[in-house]
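Support reply, case 0932

Customer input (verbatim):
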Amino acid sequence: MSEEEKNIDSQDQEKKDNITYLSGMYQDWFLDYASYVILERAVPYVNDGLKPVQRRIMHAMKEMDDGRYNKVANIIGQTMQYHPHGDASIGDALVQLGQKDLLVDTQGNWGNILTGDGSAAPRYIEARLSKFALEVVFNPKTTNWKLSYDGRNKEPITLPMKFPLLLAQGVEGIAVGLASKILPHNFLELIDASILHLKNEEFEILPDFPTGGSADFSKYNDGLRGGAVKVRAKIEKIDNKTLAVTELPFGKTTTTLIESIIKANDKNKIKVKRIDDNTSENVEILVHLGSGVSSDKTIDALYAFTDCEVSISPNACVIEDDKPKFIGVSEILRKNTDQTVSLLKLELEIRKRELEEAWHFASLEKIFIEERIYKDKEFEQSKSMDEAIAHVDKRLTPWKPKLMREITRNDILKLMEIRMARILKFNTDKANNHIQSIEDEITEINSDIKNIIPFTIDYYQRIKDKFGKGKERKTEIRSFENIVASKVVVANEKLYIDREEGFIGTSLKKSEYVCDCSDIDDVIVFRKDGTYFITKVSDKAFIGKNIQHLAVFKKNDKRTIYNVVYRDGRQGNYYMKRFAVTGVTRDKEYDITRGAAGSRILYFSANPNGEAEVLRVTLKPKPRLKKLIFEVDFGELAIKGRGAMGNILTKNDVHRIQLKEKGVSTLGGRKIWFDSDVLRLNSDNRGKFLGEFQGDDKILVIYKNGDYQLYNFDLSNHFDPDILVIEKFDSQKVLSVVYYDGDQDFYYVKRFEIDEVMGRRISFIGESDKNKLVSITWVRYPRLELEFGGKNAERENEIIEVSEFIGVKSYKAKGKRLTNYEVENITELEPVVKDEDDKPEDELEIENESDDDIPFEVNKPKAEDEEDTNQMSLF
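Our regenerated output:
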């Protein structure tokens, strides 16, 4: 290689050595940026539950705290000493803290989480730390500090939080390749769970949202990834034409909710006449329905197609030891509770050291003054400070064994700084009392440290008693059943068929009308050759010619029965069969015949309730065939699978098949259950069995407030949660009722039969809000025992035969006053005349009964092991 070539290679190598590759730069910078965003911006620390901006706001507000409100603009300015990301991010974070109503006491227009309205400008609104924050968040003696970003100030690494704030407030943050979403939990339930943890008992914590609503937490998964929470708005039925949304799903506002309802209405998923937003302090969205629209079905449709129901996916991610970790909310609570124990113990130890120092100096001062050390000649004639200190130290030697620690130079210097005025006013008794009080407090602190767990439990209980008022659970814990969208969607399209060309669809408006449908429905198509398939509703689709039957398909419908007569092949036997189609693969072709070429359907009927008709069959004449006409009843056939061959109808050629007689249902009544968890009817054997229903049968519901209502047995019915009794309605039964008239302050009894009025709640104890239902019974001959109280307490108990005391009248009648005396208890006795044929339905068991729900007595709880199936009482 020449010298020139060597020089060129040397230059090339030098250039290569100086190259910084972009990929390497990006890798380092990206990791640095991702780490910064995760640790410093988006994800909260498990120690105090705060993001850095929130922590800096709290620290700045503590520095400014003088008990008065400060302008938010000033708080933002103070926080900018610690947070280098501008005023907008600080202001937004402060408003969010203020809206959570826990750490920040606000004044002015801070926006509205219900409507989504923003807050006023920072110069108009004010804030200060709440009393709760001052008590549980700050303690400079237990805080670890670091320098601020410019090195001019100190800021806390984390605040010494003595409460599971992270779970109480919740948090949401998106970092680089990482996200955190912890849902808010109930203040009181968190304290109770912390106490249970300290007692080594099991606990469960579930989210509680500030907007209320109801939620299904069955798949919460302890707040970890993969879990899901269904949250629903609270929808009340004012009447059959008006629905009221009174509570919102978490994360939604009245504006976004109304927009979603309008959008669903525009897409013809629901039919809404008008929406009124009357929200102010509380949510009130009135949804007005048009004529002919089912309110119950609309409620389900609102949950299915609008933001009235949302699914939230939690993702509990926190920073611990400067690393992101995914831990469940139960573990977060345990860590926060254990940290509270450590902080309280540290505070006690710090206080103990302070008291020990106070005791030490008070003892030295007492000795120094009582022994008049300051008047010693050696002390007064000392030529230097060291000589004076040495003399004082020598004079204190006899008492050194009794002191808590060694005497230091600083101790003696402090003694020498005592003013003569203090020495002259010194009182030995006061000094002894002061020292004794310090010793008593040290003894108490030692006991608290030794029993730190009970001390922490007491601390939590004080927090609960002091700040827990008004923080009761807002979100109702419920179990939701899945709403099938196709069952509740409004029939917003019309289905047509062009038989000549073999097309179906919603756009063939000049063709034959089939039925109303929705754009998410499936349709089932039977051809005359015995093949069938299921396909999606569309504008236009080719299905082939020779269509036998076309209808909207309902999945898992076991009550729609198809009755068919078909010929097997061109010359085969004739078969008849009954079958249901409950579920198939969409657009896959099936065959109800045996599959031979030339097979053909001769008779077909679809029966929505399993009806079985009678057919007249006419055969073609042929030699030695004597009976040309005969009848056959589909009711004699068993319902089998769709692939069954069926029974042979005839081996002879058929001329004609005619319908002789329409059939009746062979399926019997529909068995209905009531699931008290979801307050819905079902036919799946869940909950309380109400009976077998058919035709015009009704369901009777009696509510705790003294109302009753009759319902049909439609599975889409909605029921209010305050149910006392739900059962199959029997018009022959007589209801006996005892109620309290609040206006007259007397108890009344009445007997009546339920009026068959559908569609509205009827009060049978009067319209006054002061009236209260005491007890009801279906017993035909009830007996009541009255126990008197107050000034009539010595009066003997009175027994009333209700059927003799009052006759059967209308539910509108006021009834008859039981007595004019003051009543303590009303108890139902075993009836003398028993009617074995008129046994009442089992009463619905209401969970979580209050004392006012215990049967049979007024203001007196009944023993837990007592039972009675003849009557139900509210007292």
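We compared this against your earlier run and they match. Two observations from our side: The two ends are 110 Å apart (CA to CA). The chain has 19 helices and 48 strands. Please reopen the case if you see a mismatch on your end.
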